[in-house]
Amino acid sequence: MRRQSAIVEPPGLTTNQAPFIEQARRDGQLYIHQPYELYTVENHEAWRRLFARIAPRWERYANEHFQAGIHSLCLDPLHVPRLEDVNRFLQPLTGFQAKAVSGYIPAFLFFDCLRNRTFPTTITIRPPDRLDYLPEPDIFHDVAGHVPMHTDRAFAETLVRFGECAHTAAELVAGIRDKHQQVRRLTSIIRAMARFFWFTIEFGLMRAKDGLRVYGSGLLSSFGEIEHAIESPEVQRYPIQLEWAVNQAFEIDHYQPLLFIVESFDHLFSLVDELERWMRQGKLDNVAPGEPAVNERDLRSFL
Tens digit of pLDDT for each residue in 255-303? Predict the structure, then answer.
């Protein structure tokens, strides 16, 4: 009697369990295509569950620009999105497009992508038993959290302007002959830029007519923290001051205890202008030590 073999689902594109991504990294491929046929039933189910449970919280806590962006992108709530479909709706609005990557991108390359209206996008999705938190970015964080904001013209221009700051930093340190001094100054500037990005683009709050609303993508893609950011008495919320943001360390493995508020995206754009002025004036050369760490790949990417 012939034994019936069990049907084994292919490995798929689950975060930290995707052979396709592992091979791309071994081959040195940073920019990749999205092999949509590799997504499994389990991958699509993870997307469906993530989308279904957070949608009501978007309506309650997300800023109006994000909510407009979700509608503009026509994201399928049941299936992992195809990036080509996302870009078909996104690019005519602001010129931005999502671009698939195999993983971590050195800091300068990431900022340069923003300058060129490209958003490096992870294509794997978290496993269904870890929907609440994953330290690595995934396609839900990137596409459902970040990309809807890229449909807004004012926000998109702010990202481009921030990307230009990376070129300013590279130009400033290029003329420093002393290698130790060059690395020390660049390390401080990268740390300041990373902190600014964290407290604005990833975890920013904005004033609205009816109170505070979320615009930071780290909050927008987190079912638990989007509510916690607005409602919890444990969170300190302050109008943003540039000197606070660039000198404030952060940790990624828990809900953020400190959040900063902007008035509008025009306000945010002006802060990026100020960040670049401070960079040119040397005010970012000695920011407070602490997280985030700046690794060798980030330094080399600027040098």
Answer: 999 999 999 999 999 999 999 999 999 999 999 999 999 999 999 999 8
Beta bridge partners of 62: 214
List alpha helices for the chain, DSSP H.
19-26, 41-61, 64-73, 83-94, 107-115, 139, 153-174, 179-197, 217-220, 223-231, 242-247, 265-281, 296-302
Q: Is residue 162 part of a domain?
A: yes
- DSSP letter for 7, please: P
- What CATH number is given to the structural domain containing 137? 1.10.800.10
Question: Which residue in the block uniquely carries the two structure tokens 């979700």?
Answer: 70
Q: Does the model's pTM come out above 0.90?
A: yes
The dihedral region occupied by 12, where left means phi > 0, alpha psi between -120 and 50, and beta the remainder, is left
| 79 assigned to some structural domain | yes
Instruction: Decide: residue 52, CB within 10 A, 0-12 exposed, 13-18 middle, 19+ buried.
Output: exposed
* Bridge partners for 31 per DSSP: 101
Would residue 12 count as lying in a domain? no
